[in-house]
Amino acid sequence: MATVTAPTVRTGLPGLLKHRALAKLVLIALAAAVLIPVVNARWASGSWPDALTVDLSEPLGRASDWIIDNRDSHPLFLYFFGHISNAVVLSVRAVYLVLLAAGWAGVTAAAALVAWRTAGLKLALGTGLAFLTCGLLGMWVPTMQTLALMVVAVLASVVLGALLGLAAGLSDRTYRALRPVLDTMQVLPAFAYLLPVVLVFGIGVPAAVLATVVYAAPPMARLTALGLRGADQGVLEAVESLGTTARQRLMTARLPLARKELLLGLNQTIMMALSMAVIASVIGAGGLGDRVYQALASVDVGAALAAGIPIVLLAVVLDRVTAAAGDRLGGDGPETSGRLRALQWGGAAVLAVAAAIAARLAGRLDWPEAWVVNIAEPVNRAVDWMTAHLYSGVPYIGGTADWAGHFTTWVLDPLRSGLQGLPWWSVLLIVATLAWLIGTWQTALTAVLAMAGIGVLGVWQSSLDTLSQVLAAVAVTLVLGLATGIAAARSDRVERLLRPVLDVFQTMPQFVYLIPVVALFGVGRAPAVAAAVVYALPAVVRITTQGLRQVDPAALESARSLGASSGQQLRQVQLPLARPALLLAVNQGVVLVLAVVIIGGLVGGGALGYDVVFGLAQGDLATGLVAGVAIVCLGLVLDRVTQPTERRRTTKGA
Amino acid sequence: MRLRTTSAMAGVSALLLLTGCGAADMTKQASPFANAQGSKTVTLSVQSWVGAQANVAVAQYLLEHELGYRVDTVQVDEVPAWDALSQGRVDAIMEDWGHPEQEQRYVKDKKTIARGGELGVTGHIGWFVPTYFAKKHPDVTNWKNLNKYADELRTPESGGKGQLLDGSPSYVTNDKALVKNLNLDYQVVFAGSEAAQITQMRQFAKEKKPFLTYWYAPQWLFKKVPMTEVKLPPYKEGCDADPDKVACAYPHTPLQKYLNSDFARSGGEAAALLKNFKWTTEDQNQVALMIADQKLTPEEAAKKWVDSHESTWRAWLP
Amino acid sequence: MSTLTTPAATDTAVDAPVFSVENLWKVFGPKADRVPADPELTALAPAELRSRTGCTAAVRDVSFDVRKGEVFVVMGLSGSGKSTLVRCLTRLIEPTSGRIAIDGEDVLGMDKARLRELRRHRASMVFQHFGLLPHRSVLDNVAYGLEVQGMGKAERRARAKEIVAKVGLEGMEQRRPGQLSGGQQQRVGLARALAVDPQVLLFDEPFSALDPLIRRDMQEEVVRLHREEGRTMVFITHDLNEALKLGDRIALMRDGQVVQLGTPEEIVGSPADDYVREFVREVPREQVMTVRTAMRPPESADEAGRGPAVAPDVTVSEAIEAVARTGTAARVVDDGRCLGVVDSDALLGVVAGTNTGTNGAAPKPASAVPAQATGSKAKADTKADAGEEVV
Questions:
Q1: Which terminal residue of chain B has fewer beta carbons within 10 Å of its beta carbon, N or C?
Q2: Could you say which residues form the signal peptide (chain B) (predicted)?
């Protein structure tokens, strides 16, 4: 933990804060001096004392048996979950059939035309190309399956999120009640959502869609509420002064004023739904994710890539088009008349239908097999070459396997044994101290309770194992991310070069990282850490760069006028002023790293990630759910411990 | 306030109305992707190992090209696959390594799953060392001597002990108990997925490093990395009854097929073909090797096998 | 008071007050209700009130009438409560206590529908920060008030178009607010308020956010509109010059209270207290004061028959010009009757500020009555005064 937060505590805290921090430290020390001897005498053990754990495996096992036995008979399932599940299946099926009926030409044309109308010609071309590439890679049908699932999941998330956001945007009480929940859901790794849903709905598309909705709705709700609450009060007052009814105010002013946030929410929801739709292949989502998952099983990096590229393309296209649509709406371009717009949309629709019919008449509804390009083979050869030459025995620097070995031996092992060797109460104490120093006493309390929850669940050791991986990964991420971020902030050229790379890495589903890292780093915790670093790096770099670039130019100018060298400017002006952004980068880094370290259970990361995978694989609710809850707790602890008092978090992938 | 109560009442009654329309048994829902183009569709569960993919690939090829079905495949882990099979979300599991608990629940109690006969392949799980290592140290093949080699088998992940590499969490394994009960100086390291495990084993083999791994036969990797089994205390009926006290080898299991009961009854030609499907370890390995090592797509591999083994599969057709 | 309740409002429609405000309080803070009701609390100074109760009185016991067709200016520095006051008029901010009537109808007693009706048709407001809808074109912004009333699209657009032309924005109908300059945006805000053809226009510091030149243009625009349409206006400003330029009458506010209410001339000529005096010190008095204030009775018939004639509402600076040109005292003539004379001494006295305009012979001034700290008295005086004029 010290590696993460020590710098933030040391760097230029103003005098007053230092004073307050000191007071907090004294208070904690006092509390510790009183409590520790008592606690230690009562439960003297290094690890979490057995007397304080609750064994849930029996009741959870019974619950899971009960659900399986009653799933086809109990009214709760027949009359409630059954209908939900039915509705999901029906709607996914409907969308899927429409997509298939439109054929590849129709879908591509429709997508390109929609992109053209909402985002301009360039993006329309990109969209068309992206869809054609999906076909070219032989992934047309899986792409359509994922798309069908996405459409339903995104629609449901948007409706649900917008309704929640509306409630929270219009009522203070709802907002206060909802906000901590949404904040917490935001930091949870996708994997933690899967088990409970699977338990109720069983493996399959309904479970996948619902897990996706639960994962993707919070950003929509958050941003809707933010947008409604952040509306220009002056405008609202003016609108009220004209004698509007509450409904008129909502429809003609509040919602249109929040349209930027609403579109950003849509954008976020789509991105999160896509990443979840891929992870949900573990519980039977089908589609592209399933292809990646199957390719993983046969160590076929090429095939995994062939399925991964359409995912990335979908992600980039959806991201760009919704973002561009948002910019357009937010912009001040002259209003085109309604009739012209209707005409253009109508024209687009006609064109799309024409393309679909043409393809159907030409008998080419399915993507022609002859047009499929097999990229798996060359990719695999390249990967083989890479692993053969990089894995070990590279002169001087050693192979990647050697690095992984050293990293495991010299960083991960000592960190893990250090953490696990700490007396349990001292871990709580450290958590409390850090959370309180950085945040408020409420955040500290949440963090301590969450940490204690882990102990009570009886997964203390493996949680600390996971924690050690997270800490190591975060440390590496921050070192690399801050360095890159500083470089990008200081040079436009570096930033321009980095931007597309960051975009792609950020939209890439977490799954895609796993196989190459195994090929390079072997099995174990090292590849899990490596995957986590790669996944979290883009966000950290981006936030750092933005933070540094947004530093008040006047402050920089005055520093320059005093003759500060560029190094001095960086150290004395930019970094201290960008402190909120840097703290945010740490917070985001921690959250993202945790998500991937958990998935690292699939490549030998062990600990909680393995337990979740085990729970899913064996249908063992006791192991899986306990691990899932522990992950939730760990996520809370990490988030609260790294959360500065002024919450200024952007949402994932923003 | 009154408005709120009224709307709440309206909501509740609407919900009642909605749900009152009838029961919806979600255990009877098929995949939304099934039957998409109006053809007869069969959904097969593919497990994560390549042997299972080989079964499914050949079955799929025959169903599609000989019987005109459309086949969807879903990758599901073993235990959840039983659940999905029971719900009819998949129609058949082509290769099962023995799940007595699930068999009791679904086949005997709920009768939602029917046995589909033997696959013809006998599976065996065990501990293996690479043959190049066994040749150098012939006595490593007996578990009693394993502790002697613990030092050589150490990795960063296993800490101070020797490493016993285990695979996917979905596989049947007693390794932790075995290591404890046989007093071995080893640490079980879970690769987390078979893919990761295979990648690791091939890396070791490339450098002729020694390793000890949980593995199973039939498996195509034996062709690429020859391995020798380490003898564990012999298997006796019931010696693995208590998972905590296991101290014996894994049994040899004749692999089974399972079909969804409804599908077995009314699945027509497809069900008949899947019931008849029976081939040898050799056949399966051939297809598996094409998929995993030559990186053919399962369809291409199946086509190659089908083209050269017509007599075998002719017998399966209804 | 009698002016409110007696038939005064009904006798001559022309003179009935459009807005009549009486003992208005707006207190922010916990349990704000108790403050106006408790004489002990009302007597407290603002700082004391806050420390005792945690409440802030933004509007303290304010009373005034707005007459039909006049431009009534409320002026004060920031924090004086003037913006809160104008919002209370249409209950954009709910007053704590007091009475407000529009055309004799009680505003505070209105139900929601009636209140909406008031805002839709009778009083519309122009805001300091414009409050335009950024996603709508200029035309649709102007038509917004009509849309809210439920007017059909074609009709409201046609009407909006006229208004847009009236405020000088022809050709910009399809632009978005973001593409306009501040002055143009405020013209849109003005047009939006005018579009619904309200009885009263409320302005809340409409020109404070504009730069000086544009501000002058906009002031001219308001003067022109008022001249052309004679619409009643309530105008909030912190700019004394603006207040003097536009206002028929001015209420000067400080700490939530009206410290003085009167014509510009009265405010400048006879400040009610040191605060007002300090406020108007820099004002070029000769441009505000009229000869009516500076004149004295003619000393002789000769004096009453000679010299240049000026009207009583001519400013002192104009009279100075006339006197300087002819070298003799000027006569103040109204309807051919000589009211008095102004000589160079009297005029100089105005410029120097020594003449406070209390010449006995002057007609009874619509006198600047100082509003004392005890609001009730101030109100009584004002009312009495107002009543006198009405009758």
A1: N
A2: 1-23
Domains in chain A with CATH codes: 92-373 (1.10.3720.10), 391-641 (1.10.3720.10)
Chain C partners within 8 Å of A252 (Cβ): 133, 144, 147-148
C-alpha distances (whole Å) from B317 to each of B95, B274, B313, C214 are: 19, 9, 7, 91
Residue in chain C nearest A329 by alpha carbon: C135
Convert the pLDDT of each residue in A30-48 to its tens digit: 777 777 777 776 666 666 7
By C-alpha distance, which of B156, B153, B130 is closest to B141?
B130
* DSSP per-residue letters across C248-277: SEEEEEETTEEEEEE-HHHHHHS-SSHHHH
Instruction: State the ipTM, two decimals.
Output: 0.75
Q: Inter-axis angle of helices B268-276 and B50-65, to 10 degrees?
A: 140
Cβ atoms within 10 Å, residue C109:
11
One-letter amino acid at B212 equals: L
Q: What single-letter amino acid sits at A187? A: V
Q: Chain B residues with CB inside 8 Å of A201's CB?
A: 26
Is residue C177 reached through a cis peptide bond, with omega within 30 degrees of 0 on the bond before it?
no
Q: Does the beta carbon of A160 lie under 8 angstroms from any beta carbon of chain B?
A: no
- CA dihedral for A232, A234, A235, A240, sign (positive or negative): positive
> In chain A, what residues touch B26 (CB-CB under 8 Å)?
71, 77, 81-82, 85-86, 201-202, 206
Q: What is the pTM of this model?
A: 0.76
* Tokens matching residue C343: 């000589």
Residues facing C74 on adjacent strands: C236, C251
Decide if A606 touches B, using CB distance below 8 A.
yes
Q: Which fold has domain C285-352?
A: CBS domain Like (3.90.1280)
Q: Please tell me the number of Cα atoms within 13 Å of A247 on its side-chain side.
A: 1
Contact A298 B291 (CB under 8 A): yes
Which residues 6+ apart lie within 8 Å of C235 measured at CB?
A: C71, C72, C73, C74, C203, C206, C222, C243, C246, C247
Report the C-alpha gap between A239 and A599 in whole angstroms. 50
Strand arrangement, sheet containing C249-254: C123-126, C200-204, C232-237, C71-76, C249-254, C257-262, C369-370
Nearest of A27, A51, A54, A23 to residue A39 by alpha carbon: A51
Residue with tokens 């945040």: A439
Three-state secondary structure call for residue C186: helix
Average pLDDT for consecutive 10-residue bins of chain B (318 residues)? Answer: 51 47 56 59 81 88 86 79 82 86 85 87 88 87 84 78 82 83 86 78 83 85 85 82 80 88 84 88 87 80 89 85
Q: Which pLDDT tens digit goes with each residue over C169-220?
A: 888 888 888 888 888 898 999 999 989 889 899 999 888 888 888 888 889 8
User: Which residues of A, range 58-87, sit inside 8 Å of B by Cβ?
Assistant: 68-69, 71-72, 75, 77-83, 85-86
Q: Which pair of tokens denotes residue A313?
A: 């393309």
* Superfamily of segment(s) B36-121+254-314: Periplasmic binding protein-like II (3.40.190.10)
- How many other CB atoms sit within 10 Å of the CB of residue C325? 10
Nearest of C266, C257, C248 to residue C377 by alpha carbon: C257
Pick the CATH number of C2-263+367-390 from 3.40.20.10, 3.10.20.30, 3.40.50.300, 1.10.260.40: 3.40.50.300
Name the class of domain B123-252.
alpha beta
CB B205 within 8 A of CB B215: no
Neighbours of B215 (CB within 10 A): 24
User: Does the CB of A338 have a partner CB in chain C at under 8 Å?
Assistant: no
For residue A203, the chain B residues in CB contact (below 8 A) are 76, 80-81, 83-84, 89
Cα A193 to Cα A63, A215, A600, A602: the distances in Å are: 18, 7, 16, 17
